[in-house]
Amino acid sequence: MRSNLQSLLLVLLALGLAIATTSHLPWTPLRLAGALLVLPALALFVIARIQLGKSFSIAAQATHLVTTGLYAYIRNPIYLFGGLTLAGLLLFVDKPRYLLLFLVLLPLQLRRIRNEEQVLTETFGDQYLQYKAKTWF
C-alpha cells in the first residue's frame, strides 16, 4: 500500500509542477485539449493503480491476477491511461513536439507488456489466457 501512495503522490506532484510552471501561458485550443485529455486519463490511471494494489511491480511478477474493476475490460490500463496522461500533459504545457517521445516509448512499453503477459501466462496458464481473450489491450 505504501508504494501505491508513493507512486500516486509522485504523479500528482508532477502534475502540480506542470500546472504551476505553465500558469502564465495563454489558454490555447491545444492547452485546453491537453487539459481535457489529462484530467480523465489521470483519474483512470489513479483508479487502475489503486485497483492493482499489491500486484503492482516495476519488474514483471505474477503474485495475483487482477480481473476486476478497469481490469475486467482492459488488461493494461496503467500503460494506456499513463500514456494518455503524458500526452495530455505535453499538450497542456505547450510542448506537442515532445509527443515524438511516443515513437521511442511505445515499442519499449509494448515489450514490457509482452514480458508481463509471458510471466502471467506461465504463472496462471489457462486462467490468464481466458481473461486475455475477454479483454482489450
Provide a descriptive summary of the structure in words.
The protein is mostly helical and 137 residues long. It has one domain. 69% of the residues lie in helices and 0% in strands. The chain has five helices and no strands. α4 packs across α5. The longest helix has 24 residues, at 29-52. The protein is elongated.
Radius of gyration: 16 Å
The count of helical stretches stands at 5
Mean pLDDT: 88
Q: What is the chain-wise order of helices and strands? A: HHHHH
- What fraction of residues sit in β-strands? under 5%
The major β-sheet equals: none
Regions with pLDDT < 50 over 5+ consecutive residues? none
- Distance from N terminus to C terminus (CA atoms, Å) equals 26 Å
Helix content: 55-70%
Structural class: mainly alpha
Annotation, overall tally of beta strands: 0
Total number of domains = 1
Categorize the overall geometry.
elongated
Structural key phrases:
137 residues; 0% strand
Question: Could you give a quick summary of the protein structure above?
Answer:
The chain is 69% helix and 0% strand. The protein is mostly helical and 137 residues long.
Summarize the helices and strands and which ones pair or pack.
Blueprint: H1 2-22, H2 29-52, H3 77-92, H4 101-124, H5 126-134
